[in-house]
Each structure stands twice: as C-alpha cells, then as structure tokens.
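Please, structure for the following, as tokens.
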Amino acid sequence: MEKDFHYFLTYAMAKMTECPQPEVIAYACQFVDDNNEGQFFVDGEKIFFPEKLKTADRYYYYPVMTQSLSPKSLDPYVQKYVYLPFHFLPGDNNVTIKGSPNPLNTTPNSGNAKKLLSASLESDNPYLIGIALHTFADTWSHQNFTGMQEEWNAVYPWYNGFKSIVPNIGHAEAGHSPDVISEPWIDYRIGKTVIDNKERAFAATRAIYENLQKKTRKGTPWNDVKGKFQQIIDADDYDERIAKISALMDGSIPGYSRDAWIGEAIDKDAGEVSMKPGYTDTDWYRFHQAAKIQLSKVAELTKEI
C-alpha cells in the first residue's frame, strides 16, 4: 500500500470510528514507510537515519528503522528485522508456490496479523495501533511474498531480461505494482490471471474499519459507509483517491510531513546529532518505542519459524 491508503484512508477510518488521536494513528501508519535511511531535514539541515543519538544524560538512544530503500536491504539482518516484522508478516502457511508452502509467506488477514492488530488495539497506544495497521494492510498488498531474499519471491523467469535480475526480496521483481491500488498486474508464479488490487484494498479497508469499530463501539456502521469507501478504492488514480477521501472528511485531513516528528525530537549542532531535552515526550520517540514493541511481538509470534 502507498500513502493514499496508509495515511489518508487510515485517517478517515480512524476518524469515522471515533478512535482517539486519529491523526497520530495515521501519521504512525505512514511513517513506517518513511522511517528509513533516507534524508530528513532537522532545523533546515539534512541528516540520514541516526543509528544512535546522544542524550542530555550522556547516554545513547537507539531508534528502530522500519523501512529500507537502499542496498542495505541485501543484508539478511534488515530483511529479518525490518521487512518481516513491519511489511511482510509471516502468515498462515496455506499457500503453495513452485510446489511447496513457505512459513514466512505473507497471507491476508492471517492469524498473526489479527493477533498483532488485536494486541495493539488493546494497548490503547495510538502509535502502536498505527504501526500495526500498516503491517495489517500490507498483508493484502504483499500477499504471497516474504521479506527475505529467496527464490520463492521470483515473479519472472530467469530469461525475462532485466526484471529477473532484481534481488528476490519481497515483491522487488514486481516493482511497485502490488502497492498501487489502481494498477492491475500479473503474478506469474500463480498463473496469468490479472490481479485486481482494488479488490484487495477494499477487503483490507473493510477488515480495518470493522476492527476499529469493534474496539471503539462508536462511529458509523460499516454497512452505512462501505459504498463511500468503495468509490474511493475504485478511483482511477492516486490524486482522485485523495480528493475523494478529502471530500469524505470535508477537507479536514491534517497535513503530513515526514520531517515533522523527527524535528521535534532531534537537534543538529556543529555537525553532531543528538536528542533534545524532553525527547521522551515527543511523537518521534513514542513511535520508536512502539516500533520496538511490535518488533518484539512479531518475534514472539514467529519464534517457531
């Protein structure tokens, strides 16, 4: 899924089910993708993802990276502790590809996904809820892939030129196609039937909405809003989806900047990056603490694999 789902649609669902702090839930959900090794702007200066940061008491704080978009993705450590727990959650092991199942395979609405989301909702922690919603939604868009580099993920035959030489990590060979709601594509591992991402996105929307409303017991019932969400999912492109979501929310969706949270928590002075005093009261810190909770929860759920 992309920002139209992880931020805008997630905000709409959290708001319409009357979740506390829907803006935090939506930001955390999208920030899972943006919390990578790319550039951030702190006080107008560029920094890269900080692996450790000095604190006022002369200790270090160690944040958790939740996405990787660089050659670091070739590192099995990144695959195990970034892709698998946040984007390619091992599912129900009920899919056979190339003659065998795979316990690391992602399956939509899997037992592990339900447990992860349920635990986050029970915590009442909006940062943890947002992170879990990202992973939960990705079980639809990333279904039939794993977060590791393995032949299982090879969509194209070896003779298919450039596409087949892409490292078989997640859906790398398929490019962005699985994440784009309005883009049909073919997963040649399972045949030549065109996959309709809109069907997958709508199923994810329904499951998320119903889980949120089950938690809050408030807001508009799913049957009364499913037509509106169907219209959003059926939009022809990203911009049209955003416009439809904005209209649904009467234009009241908060703006999003990937630099907002990190700028509240971090200082850059004389080339050194460190935590600001009072950093434990910032959204950025709370997000990373929640990411550590999810990381440990996924480790528990997958300890037998």
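Residues 23 and 255 are 9 Å apart (CA to CA). Residues 3-301 form one domain.
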